[in-house]
């Protein structure tokens, strides 16, 4: 099994995905162990002084004015975890919880949080045991960190609350820790606060979304090419010299992907041979690289923000070991992450929208250039893919609602001490829903375009297109014929897109796609 080593200088998006989705083991480097110990010595020294230090010997938030004596500090740290574990609603997905735990561990290991090395080792042990704390949908405002979600994780480290075991069963966290030989942690000065105060949940969901969108944008280029082909469109608009004069990098990649898929097609170039010759294809076909390319560039910008956040140590207060100081700061504010989460939801919605327009064009006999209505076997007796487009349209409409930004909202909290929040967690939650919807929308276009290509009797599709259609059929998705129960076919097509099978079917013919 792959092992991820956590050091002091952050981690990579690939490591986060490996731990969150694929169960990679986690190890703490000797360098990180030393940094943890050095930062802790600063906290211990400050804790021994009579002067109050926020997070070490004071209350929290609006209660920071109270000085807490040594005898109550362990209770203070326990209490912040218990009281902040106030989430409600459905459980958050296992991969998201693992991502946020791993990212919090990454920050602990930076040497700027002041927790003891044993706290970090316990968190790594919980991840490696496959124990996943139960975290709930609601509870984070995306400022002062993803407080409630991280609190539920910290609660499990204390042996309290509920968690899911590696067998998928939810049990009391204390029982699961004991079953795996993990001793619950006993928190000391600053440690409870350090476990809660980060953008780890929203960042984890951003990284998972970027992993998904990388595949979905390539898949959308493939389905756009198939639709162009099925509509007997022209691939001349994909010429690289046309895209070089508008030098957006994502646009060039999308056009090159489509051109690679269409190479050798016997269907393209017939656009002037209809009863009503076309001078040019509709926008949804002709402008596919521009729309998908703009989305790609948005993804690249979001990835840049994510990489910066991966290199950050987000906590408040933060330990500066070289100066021997602990300082309050505002680095926990989720605005940088929240903005790109919202931006990605906008880009994804537009990609879904243009894909649906191509699907609708394939099903309309007045615009499909010779295809039967709704690609039905016996139109009138059969409805064909009419309602598949309804489903796709419903998903597009949902994505448009999800594209409304969360980060422009703010609800003051903590008696107006925390009077401006990012809502980044909410932006991340809706992006996950949007990404799932986008995969389904692309699947409906794939299903429709594949059937339309097969109905073009006497014309030979591109080798890459033929490979895509053959692989889809091998996956159990039926081709043209009388009406059948569509939902299972659509579900199978969605999985075919989601797991990368569409790309895997095409790339042996095209070579690697961007």
From TrEMBL:
Keywords from the UniProt entry: Cytoplasm, Histidine metabolism, Lyase
Keyword Ribosomal protein: no
Cited SUPFAM superfamilies: L-aspartase-like
InterPro entries: Aromatic_Lyase, Fumarase/histidase_N, HutH, L-Aspartase-like, Phe/His_NH3-lyase_AS
Catalytic reactions of this protein: L-histidine = trans-urocanate + NH4(+)
Cellular component GO terms held in the UniProt record: cytoplasm
Modified residues (2,3-didehydroalanine (Ser)): 144
UniProt crosslink position (5-imidazolinone (Ala-Gly)): 143-145
Entry's localization field: Cytoplasm
Sample GO molecular function, one term: histidine ammonia-lyase activity
Stored CDD domains: PAL-HAL (cd00332)
GO biological process, one term: protein homotetramerization
EC id: 4.3.1.3
PTM: Contains an active site 4-methylidene-imidazol-5-one (MIO), which is formed autocatalytically by cyclization and dehydration of residues Cys-Ser-Gly.
Pathway: Amino-acid degradation; L-histidine degradation into L-glutamate; N-formimidoyl-L-glutamate from L-histidine: step 1/3
Source taxon at top rank: Bacteria
Recorded family membership: Belongs to the PAL/histidase family.
Protein name according to UniProt: Histidine ammonia-lyase
Species assigned in the record: Streptomyces qinzhouensis
